Amino acid sequence: MEEKVIEKLIGAFMFLPGVGYKTAQRYAYKILTGDEQEVKNLASCIIDAKEKVKFCKVCGGFSTADICDKCKNRNSKIICVVEEPKDISSIERVKNFDCVYHVLHGCISPLNNKGPDDIRLKELLLRVNEGDFEEVIIATNPSVEGEATAMYIAKLLKPLNIKVTRLAQGISMGSDLEYTDEVTLSKAIEARREI
Amino acid sequence: MEEKVIEKLIGAFMFLPGVGYKTAQRYAYKILTGDEQEVKNLASCIIDAKEKVKFCKVCGGFSTADICDKCKNRNSKIICVVEEPKDISSIERVKNFDCVYHVLHGCISPLNNKGPDDIRLKELLLRVNEGDFEEVIIATNPSVEGEATAMYIAKLLKPLNIKVTRLAQGISMGSDLEYTDEVTLSKAIEARREI
Question: DSSP labels for B61-102?
Fold first, then answer.
């Protein structure tokens, strides 16, 4: 009987990304032997977050209301386009920079059967058209699909006469020239600046 | 508002062993974007396991009742002593071997302020004294503390005139002599067998 309950818990933990049987087993044992209050807190936080957090109807990021705090309170003229809601928190960590967001919920990726109609491009066009924006920063990932999506969006926005920018590509701060791949290096040379 | 709910969820996930902020964040995003049914299943499995699974009053292993299935149904004359409840499932994976268990819930470890009275030794003595056992296998971990605990238990059981054994130490199956540490190799040489 106890085996069944524990096996079910292990199976449930394997739903989390990157968690195989062994890790799930470790988590399950922690649940069984850990502090009751903390275990209940974890379960209620999971339920709570799943029930309360939906997607913002304007930007597509996480929100507990129909429209998220950022869309409601910020009056920025810069709109930053990202692939996933989690990318917002990465950009939010940058200090002294203020913008609103637009989450595409994916990128154009023919291999995964995702075309321009499967991501939130229509909504972006509508927002840029109707809103009072001065600049669109495209912050899709520096992958093949992310690059292609960025190019596609840039072309799409061209007729609207709005400044469209892309995050700079180059060497990461604190990294080592020796370990930088040649594609990154060639991008860094291409975009070199006078000092 | 949404940040608070998500941050609380990330904090709750960090209760799991080996989970830092970044991993907790990944798990939290999976909760927010994953299938609702699976998320609810995870939460209910956690609550369910925590509420139902207690420790068996006889062996100290996990149990959904006062006495676990193994203690209730098995009539083995071999008792296997392990440090933690999770060690039982490791030994259960061995086929064609049948025993009952005794979980110490730790081992003697002066550095962690754990003496002989802090682990379930009295209960072991009582069980061996009153039960009809023929052999005690000491399966504590092959660490310094586990070895010391094994020695201590062996001495403790000596007056009871029962066969006390320890799991063999040597080279792991499938490993490589080149990468075997010298302590293991010396144990393997010491315990060499004629073939």
Answer: SEESSSS-HHHHH---SEEEEESSHHHHHHHHTSTT---EEE
